[in-house]
Design goal:
Strand content: under 5%
Number of strands: 0
Order of helices and strands: HHHH
Shape: globular
Largest sheet: none
Number of domains: 1
Number of helices: 4
Radius of gyration: 13 Å
């Protein structure tokens, strides 16, 4: 398991678990510049905004990545993004 910074040391998007250059670019595209801006956000809404802004349908696993980042900033343990796949599938099925 990779090592993560203490939450208080997470200042760049790339410091977040599961967020690399591409994920950070996606977040910036939807107006998220700092990790603390993720608190209270809806990962599904973030995904829909990303698809609308880019004019492309992104892989649904992007929702999982957004879920992991939002939850982490809201106090959850850092988990691999695929830990949220089942929850995303339930969410999309019920929506």
């Amino acid at each position: 398991m990779p090592t993560y910074l203490e939450r208080s040391a997470v200042v760049k998007l790339e410091d977040l678990p599961n967020i690399g250059k591409a994920g950070a670019a996606d977040l910036r595209c939807i107006g998220i510049e700092r990790p603390d801006q993720l608190v209270g956000k809806s990962p599904l809404q973030m995904y829909e905004t990303l698809c609308a802004k880019t004019g492309a349908r992104h892989d649904p696993c992007v929702i999982d990545v957004f879920m992991s980042a939002v939850r982490y900033m809201e106090g959850a343990e850092p988990l691999p993004w695929w830990s949220y796949t089942a929850e995303r599938k339930r969410l999309l099925k019920s929506g």
